[in-house]
Specification:
Helix content: 25-40%
Shape: elongated
Number of helices: 11
Bound molecules: 6-O-phosphono-beta-D-fructofuranose
Radius of gyration: 21 Å
Strand order of the largest sheet: 3-2-1-4-5-12-13
CATH architecture of the largest domain: 3-Layer(aba) Sandwich
CATH topology of the largest domain: Rossmann fold
Order of helices and strands: EHEHEHEHEHEHEHEEEHEHEEHH
CATH class of the largest domain: Alpha Beta
Structural class: alpha/beta
Strand content: 15-25%
Distance between the termini: 59 Å
Number of strands: 13
Number of domains: 2
């Protein structure tokens, strides 16, 4: 059997751990040949492919990014994109694909399966917003990086009696903000799921200053004020129709200064949250996802995604996994509110 792998969407720590696990188990336990398609769905559309042998996956377990490259290419936006993929797979003698990605990459995987291509999905995203799995790999690493940043920013904020606003990623969900904010002891956590009242934030900040502490505000890039809109970094949309978020941190820091007279600074963590070596948790999760994806391919169980349920890896339908975003439940957010102010 010849199996192709690809990584699509924003990169994420742990992608190489999945690739390694699929290649190791595919070759050593199943006797398969493995190939890697470069740059997400662009690879199988353009025939951009490389062999993947055991030597190619030595030493990649701890490496961030993806040795296959990634892109946000959408074959359903390209006329004839699906036919091109089918032709490349036939030319390459590839019987099945393992697609590692988030909602967009796996949405394509779902449609391709319906169009007759055998695909098994592996969920990845630092945002942790994919339905049908308790966690995605990459999230734990992003939360660690953001928490470390909060710890560091706290000491400089306290030295200068400033409010520090830390903007984290997460797109339209607040998982990274909630977890890093809780872990870092933030005084305010703002998430897209719960539009915020600027005056309340200002009151919490003042209260913190009154107690001689510097306020730390963690804001998700998709958080928005009541009655307002998400702040966009640019008006551009990607091939899946996503806007680029960013800027709410700076906006909020200015509002805080305007209403309190206190100095404030905003720090946008940005892509540093996605870079570098994965945590041990993400390496283990990514490795287990890869091992179970091999079993799904061997069973001919296409149109599924491997998922974490409790401590077990299970298979769920791609249609279930991509049906809706997993947002932060309001009762989970309410748990954190006790620490605000
Ligand atoms: O989905 C992962 C993510 O990092 C989001 O948190 C963020 O909004 C987006 O990707 C950034 O995308 P890009 O890498 O295209 O700037």
């Amino acid at each position: 059997m010849r199996v192709g792998l690809l990584t699509g969407g924003g990169d994420c720590p742990g992608l190489n751990a999945v690739i390694r696990a699929v290649v190791r188990k595919g070759i050593e336990a199943k006797g398969w040949e493995l190939v890697g398609f470069r740059n997400g769905w662009q690879g199988p559309m353009e025939g951009n492919v490389r062999p993947l042998g055991l030597a190619d996956v030595e030493d990649i377990l701890a490496r961030g990014g993806t040795i296959l490259g990634s892109s946000r290419t959408n074959p359903y936006k390209d006329s004839g994109g699906v036919d091109k993929i089918k032709q490349v797979l036939a030319d390459q003698g590839v019987d099945a694909l393992v697609a590692i990605g988030g909602e967009d990459t796996l949405g394509v995987a779902r449609r391709l399966t319906e169009d007759g291509v055998g695909v098994v999905g592996v969920p990845k995203t630092i945002d942790n917003d994919l339905g049908a799995t308790d966690y995605t790999f990459g999230f734990d690493t992003a939360v660690h990086i953001a928490t470390d940043a909060i710890d560091r920013l706290r000491t400089t904020a306290e030295s200068h009696h400033r409010a520090l606003v830390i903007e984290v990623m997460g797109r339209h969900t607040g998982w990274i903000a909630l977890h890093s904010g809780l872990a870092g002891g933030a005084n305010v956590i703002l998430v897209p799921e719960r539009p915020f009242d600027v005056q309340k934030v200002v009151a919490w900040v003042k209260r913190r200053f009154e107690r001689q502490y510097a306020p730390i505000i963690v804001v998700a890039e998709g958080a928005l004020p009541e009655g307002g809109d998400e702040v966009l970094a640019s008006g551009e949309k990607d091939a899946f129709g996503h806007v680029r978020l960013g800027g709410v941190g700076n906006w909020l820091a200015d509002e805080i200064t305007r209403h309190t007279g206190a100095e404030s600074r905003a720090v946008v963590l940005g892509h540093v949250q996605r870079g570098g070596t994965p945590t041990a948790y993400d390496r283990v999760l990514a490795t287990r996802f890869g091992l179970h994806a091999v079993d799904a391919v061997a069973d001919g169980d296409f149109g599924v995604m491997v998922a974490l349920r409790g401590t077990d890896i299970v298979r769920v339908k791609l249609s279930e996994a991509t049906a809706e975003l997993k947002t932060v439940p309001l009762e989970r957010y309410a748990e954190a509110e006790v620490f605000f102010g």
